[in-house]
Specification:
heterodimer, A: alpha+beta, Penicillin-binding protein 2a (Domain 2), Beta-lactamase, disordered N terminus, B: mainly alpha, two-stranded antiparallel sheet, 14 helices
Chain lengths: 639, 374
């Protein structure tokens, strides 16, 4: 064993070794210091920041969809609710063999094999994230899947809520439909953009505020109609449950220290629509390809009926449409997507004669017994002959009779007396040419030509005043929606007051409070009481006078008043109009009927209006009686 | 001849603490992973306990074996370990690297073995030639030849981390042996250039290096492992989330029980535990160096020095990776990380060190010596 000798030489080496070792120890010390400082920085200074991100790392927020509010008609009948339905999902982690599985699954789900494969492949990488395969699968398919579940690993089904419309055929226009948000829509202007997640120092996590961005991918949104208009109310607030997940997304279970936010059900609402009346209007229009019916309560503007033909099934629109079905809808010559009552505009034809008459009376260019040149079937103005709808002519008429018999020649002359400027002025005061502000989306404005318009179109002084001749009988460039016309007649039926038409009657908040929509006066017709009196007399005559054009709207024990219209249509048969109200002495309903490509208004539209009015008023009597019986019985019960 | 003096119990206590803590933490870090992979939460800990038992046994036995007995095997070990470095290249690579040799139940890294063989060989050789240490030709070149060949072989696996740690131990030994600094620089310069070229010119691990540079200042923008590791440490805060409560091991952190066990410890034990462990390792190293300086001969000195230093270098590299200051290398944390290879080799080293500690002689304190010295 050699022992270290303390010779000078070795001592020298030893000392130098010591010194060098000290340098190394210094190096070690510095390293430990650096590591400790780094640990201090990460674990003490930045601890809360990293903790926050780490939480986000492992928390998977799963939305709990809020049940959408139920929609009922004015009598409490359900017209939109949530129906449980089966949705098929696939979890790739459990499925393992993509090809084999899609081969087995495609025939069961009745899906195209290559399409299915494509869909699965696109989502395969996220092993634990379920892929939605098919919605609204029928019970029979579920049974098949249940039977073969040994051969279909990873295939699961779940009950989801699907929006359902028992009265689907017309609901598409009034109620609209509900459909999932797509990726594009979510990022587009449809919804407010989500908080940008890539800021360097997030102060709070997105999942702290699941309600902030109320729309989410895969969530549903109301489209068209009431579903769109009142989406905010109907949608409710989605909840959120917090699951602990692994890095791969495998769910370990609910997060213990974080309670789920429960969803808030959407607001239930009652519409002003009368389901029975709606059905009556549907059946009254049944024989026609296309048309529209609007029924309003003139006392408050409530929309009782809104029919647009051809109808479109909300259940169908809300379901999974394939491209062919969609193409079919778009190429249908009758444009079923168009809600004719509020989105389409038509020439009002003779129904607008009451505006011309009112304007003439108010500007004192005519009165009840103004007789103009007699009608011999046409009116010569300059070089052009303007024909009356009745070739044999009406002879000599006063204003009331001219309305009752709808004499065009009389109104050509009256229009010239009123003049374009005044006519256009009164039309606008009556609310034409602008939206009524109904609580439904995409209301059309219609159009009232003015001198300014013609100045622009033809140049100043380049147009002749005979343009008003056509406008006076509701032809030419004037365009109105059926709703606008119904609104105008609400004013004519009452003391001139037009309430804003609305479809929402009341809502029931989550707290159970019922809030009823307050009726709002939209405008008053610029007609004096005597003018209105005269127009009413004429409208009663249209239906009840032997010479009236609207005789087919007559009802035995109720006085119906109204006006027919026949709008010339360059593409075919004329559009038939009838707008009326009843009972004349105390109007409860105003109905505007448009039948496209039918012919005379008195022949085709008036009977439709009659059926609706009859249904409403007769049933109203029965309902009133029932109410009083109930009131009496409850009184007795109370005693 | 061997005196009956007691081994350094303080050192033994530190090692015992570290191995016990490691066992607990390996269980905490691996249970969920083991359950997921092998449907048995004790899959890893079972083995780790076995290895810990073997380690304690080896420490106990080797403390009693005179370290001088190893000297005559030094050259043989070196040759043997270098052969294994060739052999390992024929084994099935794991995650793209052929670092492990599997013989039946035994799985180990020959680079680990080589590290200790090199320390042993250099202790033997340097103690014999200490008078020629300043002679470039006779002493220096053979060492570099050995290191050069071994480095190339380990690079082939590839295992850059091992090359770096071995080179650092090698240079430290030469430095402390009294080699001229000029010579050290002269010889290590080509090595540095070679590594530099490998990394940057040939793109080998360039991505890792880029990730690394970025992740020093922004650990979350670096590579995935560093990000998860830093998140784990950060979540731990000062006091930790509590034993077994860590979340990063839920498959966010890859290797939560092996190379990144320190991150799991940091999450569950917090800054205090991490700092405590760093201090324990620092004391362990100082103890080892103190034993070296009190060793009865130069062989003992170099052996003790080499063992202590190689433990510390591993700690430094591993912790450096975990805190996001170094690129990921695949160096385990001595005593704490899961894995028989690392634990048993470290324990063998400790056994040797403890034996040297039993043979120490009294030396005046360095301060006094420094004053009286030449």
């Amino acid at each position: 064993m050699e022992r270290l000798e303390h010779t000078n030489e070795s001592l020298g080496g030893f000392v130098s070794r010591k010194q060098r070792a000290r340098i190394l120890i210094g190096f070690l010390g510095i390293s430990v210091l650096v590591l400790s400082l780094r640990l201090f920085f990460l674990q003490v200074i930045k601890a809360s920041y990293y903790k926050l991100i780490s939480e986000e790392n492992r928390i998977h927020a799963v939305p709990l969809p809020a049940p959408r509010g139920t929609i009922k008609d004015r009598n409490g009948k359900i017209i939109a609710f949530n129906r449980p339905s089966y949705t098929i999902f696939l979890i790739p982690y459990e499925a393992k063999d993509l090809d084999l599985l899609s081969q087995r699954l495609a025939p069961i789900l009745n899906m195209d094999l290559s399409w299915l494969k494509e869909k699965l492949k696109a989502n395969w990488s996220k092993k634990y994230e379920r892929i939605k395969l098919k919605k609204e699968v029928d019970f029979k398919t579920i049974c098949v899947i249940e039977e073969q579940n040994q051969d279909l690993p990873g295939v699961i089904y779940q009950v989801e809520q699907t929006r359902s419309y028992p009265e689907g055929s017309w609901a598409g226009h009034v109620l609209g439909y509900v459909k999932e948000l797509s990726k594009g829509e979510l990022s587009g202007d449809l919804v407010s953009p989500a908080k940008s997640a890539d800021s360097n120092e997030p102060t709070s996590l997105d999942l702290d505020s699941p309600g902030k961005s109320s729309y989410r991918l895969g969530g549903s949104i109301g489209r068209e109609g009431v579903e769109k208009q009142y989406d905010d109310l109907l949608r409710g607030k989605d909840g959120m449950t917090f699951l602990e997940v692994t890095a791969a997304g495998k769910i370990l279970g609910p997060l213990e220290d974080r309670k789920p936010d429960l969803p808030t059900k959407g607001t239930d609402m009652k519409l002003t629509i009368d389901l029975d009346l709606q059905a009556e209007a549907e059946s009254a229009l049944a024989t026609y390809e296309s048309g529209a019916v609007v029924a309003l309560d003139p006392k408050n503007g409530e929309i009782l009926t809104l029919v647009s033909k051809p109808g479109i099934d909300a259940n169908f629109l809300g379901g999974a449409l394939n491209p062919e079905e969609w193409k079919e809808i778009l190429q249908n010559p009758f444009h079923p997507l168009l809600s004719r009552t509020i989105q389409a505009t038509y020439a009002p034809a003779s129904t607008l004669k009451l505006l011309t008459a009112g304007a003439a009376l108010e500007s004192k260019v005519a009165h009840r017994d103004t007789y103009l040149s007699p009608c011999f079937g046409s009116y010569q103005f300059g070089k052009r002959a303007f024909r009356c709808w009745r070739p044999e002519g009406h002879g000599r008429l006063n204003l009331v009779d001219a309305i009752i018999q709808s004499c065009d020649v009389y109104f050509y002359q009256l229009g010239l007396k009123v003049g374009l400027e005044r006519w256009s002025h009164y039309a606008k005061l009556c609310g034409f040419g602008e939206q009524m502000g109904v609580d439904l989306p995409e209301e059309a404005k219609g159009f009232i030509p003015s001198p300014e318009y013609y100045n622009k179109k033809y140049g100043k002084g380049e147009w002749v005043k005979n343009l008003v001749i056509n406008l006076a009988i509701g032809q030419g460039e004037v365009l109105v929606t059926p709703l606008q016309l119904a609104g105008f007649y609400c004013g004519l039926a009452t003391d001139g007051t037009i309430y804003r038409p609305h479809i929402l009657k009341e809502i029931t908040t989550t707290q159970g409070r019922v809030i009823t929509t307050q009726s709002e006066v939209l405008r008053r017709l610029p007609f004096s009481a005597s003018t209105l009196e005269l127009l009413k007399e004429a409208m009663i005559g249209v239906v009840n006078d032997a010479s009236g054009t609207g005789g087919l709207a007559r009802i035995s024990d109720v006085t119906v008043a109204g006006k027919t219209g026949t709008a010339q249509n360059p593409f075919g048969e004329a559009h038939a109009w009838f707008v009326g109200y009843a009972p004349a002495e105390n109007p409860k309903i105003v109905v505007a009927v448009l039948v496209e490509n039918a012919g005379h208004g008195g022949t085709f539209a008036a009977p439709v209006a009659k059926a609706i009015i009859e249904k409403y008023l007769k049933r109203g009597i029965i309902a009133d009686q029932k109410d009083s019986i109930i009131a009496v019985s409850s009184l007795n019960f109370g005693n | 001849m061997i005196d009956k003096s007691k081994p350094d119990y303080f050192l033994l206590a530190i090692v015992t603490i570290l191995i016990s803590l490691g066992t607990v933490m390996v269980y905490s870090a691996s249970a969920i992973l083991a359950d997921d992979r092998f449907h048995s939460s004790i899959y890893f800990i079972k083995k780790q306990i076995l290895w810990a038992g073997i380690s304690f046994f080896l420490i106990f036995v080797l403390t009693k074996v005179d370290y001088h007995k190893y000297e005559r095997f030094a050259k043989f070990f070196l040759l043997f370990s270098m052969i294994l470095l060739v052999v390992v290249l024929f084994f099935q690579p794991v995650k793209g690297a052929a670092r492990w040799i599997r013989v039946g139940p035994i799985v180990f890294q020959p680079s680990e073995l080589f590290k200790y063989a090199l320390v042993l060989f250099m202790a033997h050789s340097l103690s014999r030639r200490k008078n020629q240490i300043k002679n470039l030709k006779y002493v220096f070149l053979p060492y570099f030849l050995v290191l050069g060949i071994a480095s190339l072989l380990i690079m082939k696996e590839p295992h850059l981390g091992a090359v770096l740690s071995i080179s650092m131990i090698f240079l430290a030994l030469l430095f402390v042996a009294g080699t001229k600094v000029k010579h050290l620089l002269l010889i290590s310069a080509p090595l540095a250039v070679a590594i530099f070229l490998l990394v940057f010119a040939f793109g080998y691990k360039k991505q890792r290096v880029d990730d690394y540079l970025k992740s020093i200042s922004h650990p979350l923008e670096g590579n995935y492992q560093t990000k998860q590791s830093v998140l784990g440490l950060g979540s731990g805060g000062v006091g930790g989330v509590g034993l077994g409560e860590g979340k990063q091991k839920l498959f966010f952190l890859p290797e939560p029980h092996t190379d990144f066990v320190f991150a799991t410890i940091g999450e569950e034990g917090g800054f205090l535990t991490c700092a405590g462990i760093m201090i324990l390792f620092f004391i362990l190293t100082l103890k080892g160096l103190s034993i070296a300086f009190r060793a009865p001969d130069d062989f003992g000195f170099f052996l003790a020095f080499g063992i202590s230093f190689s433990i510390f270098i591993c700690v430094l590299i591993n912790a450096g990776v975990v805190v996001g200051l170094l690129p990921t290398t695949g160096i385990p944390m001595p005593f704490l990380s899961y894995g028989g290879s690392s634990l048993i080799f470290s324990s063998i080293g400790m056994g040797m060190l403890l034996n040297i500690s039993r043979q120490t002689r009294y030396v005046p304190s360095p301060r006094v010596l420094g004053k009286t010295g030449v």
